[in-house]
Specification:
The chain is mainly α. The protein has a domain of 40 residues. 26% of the residues lie in helices and 4% in strands. The protein is built from one helix and two strands; from the N terminus they run αββ. The chain has a two-stranded antiparallel ribbon with strand order 1-2.
């Protein structure tokens, strides 16, 4: 259930990333609708309906996430920010893992 985060360079942000790469004996089995190794044909009509809903929700979520990344965001500049202002706004990055 873990993931690796190796891409050849250091982030240099002063904190350690814990890599969770060991299995858990108490992990619950995924419902069939969530388990992508189960083909659609092997699901009951109810499970197929649930999977279809999850796919549509996932596509909607992915679309909204992409729109939020591609749309420039501005935050009002604060006197205490000390940042460079442009037209009364201070442009911010949303995450410290920007490459």
């Amino acid at each position: 259930m873990g993931h690796a985060h190796h891409h050849g360079h250091s982030h240099g942000h002063g904190h350690h990333h814990h890599h969770h790469d060991h299995p858990h004996d108490n992990a619950a089995a995924l419902p069939a609708a969530f388990d992508t190794s189960v083909p659609d044909e092997a699901l009951t009509p109810e499970q197929r309906s649930r999977r279809s809903l999850l796919r549509r929700a996932g596509l909607l979520g992915a679309g909204l996430a992409a729109a939020s990344v591609l749309t420039p965001q501005a935050a009002p500049a604060s006197a205490a920010s000390g940042g460079r202002r442009r037209d009364g706004f201070l442009w911010l990055a949303g995450d410290h893992h920007i490459h």
